[in-house]
From TrEMBL:
Gene3D superfamilies: 3.40.50.2300, Homeodomain-like. SUPFAM superfamilies: CheY-like, Homeodomain-like. PROSITE patterns: HTH_ARAC_FAMILY_2, RESPONSE_REGULATORY. It is found in: Cytoplasm. Pfam families: GGDEF_2, HTH_18, Response_reg. InterPro entries: CdaR_GGDEF, CheY-like_superfamily, Homeodomain-like_sf, HptR, HTH_AraC, Sig_transdc_resp-reg_receiver. It comes from Paenibacillus alba. PANTHER family: HISTIDINE KINASE-RELATED, TRANSCRIPTIONAL REGULATORY PROTEIN HPTR. Keywords: Cytoplasm, DNA-binding, Phosphoprotein, Transcription, Transcription regulation, Two-component regulatory system. Residues 5-125 form the Response regulatory domain. This is Response regulator. The modification 4-aspartylphosphate is found at D60. Residues 431-529 form the HTH araC/xylS-type domain.
Amino acid sequence: MREVTCLIVDDEPPMVRRLEKYFERWAERQLPFRLVGYAYSGDEALEKAAELRPDLILTDIVMPGMSGIELIRELRERMPSVEVIILSAYSDFAYAKQAIAIGVFEYLVKVPLREEDVFTALSKARDNVIAREEKEHRIQSLSGSVKENSHRLRKHLLEELVRGEVSASVMERRSMELAPGFEPRQYGCFAIRFDNYDVFCSEFSPSDRNMLKYGMLNIIEEVLQGVGGCFACELQPSVMVAFATIHAGSEQMFDNNCYELGVNVRDAIKTYLRISVSVGVSRMHSGWGQAAAAYEEAKEALRDTFYASFGTIVTFNRRLSYTEHDWRELTEHFERALVRVSAKSTREVLAPLLPHLHDHRVNPDRLVDYVEGWCVRLRQGLLPAEHAEADAIRGTFADCTHLHQLVERLRLQGERLGTLAEGSGLRPEMVKAMRYVEDHLKESISLSLVAEHIHLNPTYVSELFKKELGVNFTDYVSKRRIERAIGLLRKNNYSNLELAEAVGVHNEKYFCTLFKKITGTSPQKFFADS
């Protein structure tokens, strides 16, 4: 059983002794928590932490000299993986907000301090420690160089086949060397795509991303080889492709088998790597001569996940149909809005358009291109020529793989263009600060970071928010996070933890408290009532 080592930091000896007794009782019951030391000040705690390297630190906030918040900031620089639980006599949200912003795992109030509350917090922190270590171990174990080279060679070979640069006979001979056991007599093509590749890239370094991708390929091969041979590789940065032998007596049975395999692939990647993917599958094919067509069918099926939630499986028989009628209706709404829009009505005109995107089914690639072009024309109509360059928008929507991503970016573009067009509505530095907040809601945002970004003094930026928007900086960020959470909640039935992480709040309990403070109800009740 993984034992978690703990360090207590508190300037009150009675509190230290009380916590020591808790640990003594837990040791007698053989529970996985061991006290390795204690400190009575922040400076002493830094020395003890460097010496003892604990997994977890329990600290007070208000102490002589270095405060608990200052201690935690120092620890984050020196020991970024250590978990921190705050024990404080203060229940004031100001302390809790600071704690959450610097990655504190839990915030417990001392009065009254119950043993079961401390034990529950320690147990959750221990789960975090174990999950992190397992993730690091998985990443390290995915670095087999032989298999990496094999996957690279497969990628180059498949790219040549798709481009028509290699014959089916050559492909068959070379594939026997790179993927022995796979015979393309009756197979389907699986296209597996990251649901949020931007987040994946922001969370992992390039080397870790490569290792995780090879881990995905290993999982895909293991699942698909359970029913026959498999030829898998990464064909695009965000898309894995696999050809798998599937035995079935009919097209319908083949389609059903492919769907079940797609579900198994998705679930295994989610379970072992904590990565969400969607899967598109072709119909039944035979021979390498049909591989390029099979790949195109899988890509087309994958494209249909645009109108579904993350983790969707689309097979050939489950494809959506797109009609010209829907296309004409949708574009007519947007064209009429473009005529009516003005600097003062951008938000009012754009808001009614967004529901139409959910009500019409049109080809996703065609839609993304149209919306991008529409935004270019909107910018050119609202702004003077010197500020209306198309390059300011080009590429904004290119990587939208799901409708809710497109809708959110369109809403943000509308707000930005409206703010720019209004000119005197807000000061330029205020607009820049608000834009920074919007772009970094998933991250830890502080007044000092925003002030540094716009090259102003933090105190002055704080006064700007109060003067220009009528709220202080912290309340503005909290409000935008909850508004973003509400937008996500309307698209899918997320758990509270998933919502919290999606909007940059890394504590589920605090997120629920913040949500209720701003909306008057809990996230799930809000969803049920809306």
